[in-house]
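Task 17 of the worksheet. Students: predict the tertiary structure of the chain below and write it out as structure tokens. Keep your answer in the requested format; marks are given for formatting as well as content.
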Amino acid sequence: MAEDRWVEVDCYITDLLVPQDAALDAALAQSEADGLPQINVAPNQGKLLHLLARIQGARRILELGTLGGYSTIWLARALPEGGRLITLEVSSRHAEVARRNIARAGVEDRVELRLGPAADALPKLESEGQGPFDFVFIDADKANIPLYFHWALRLTRPGSLIVVDNVVRNGDVIDAQSEDLNVLGVRRFLEILAAERRVSATAIQTVGSKGYDGFLLALVGQGGDAAPSRNPLRQ
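Model answer:
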């Protein structure tokens, strides 16, 4: 019953605040028709990313994990004239679908899709002098989030925003005994982040049409907390 209510609330919010958009709807439909996994962000989450990028005033955006290009379109639309988005995708099948969706949305002039493992692409971006990026969205395989975060820090500047999706994993993130590589990747990332003094970060749990998960936001160059604060939830 709770999950049904989550979906109903998402639909209510989306119907009111996220107007139907032919290109975005087509991107979702095309991705489903081509058999891509239905793990894209929800419409209200896509608009959240769009608003965060606009609030950030981002001119250069880096996305890890293109899938069918749904979140790519949301982020590309947040860019000002002359802005640029580089998105990394390991699957040639996903990339083919994404390219069609991005072109249909009319944002291909500001999007560069790079095919191949992010672990290879990220050092290449640095060697090409592609940074600094103002906004980074990490939505790729969770086992490698620690590596992706390392490169995100190298490719950003003070004031840049790093957003990471799927950090709660249906609550499994608190399971210290988990053998799930995705959970282990998120837990290791959070441990690294907790000790990283170059960022100020927090994470929020989310529920909705995509189930129970969470987003993490890290602001670069603001400095981590000087000391752990007392957690009022633990008595």
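Marker's comment: The beta strands are 60-64, 84-89, 111-115, 133-138, 156-165, 199-208, 211-220. The chain has one domain: 2-220.
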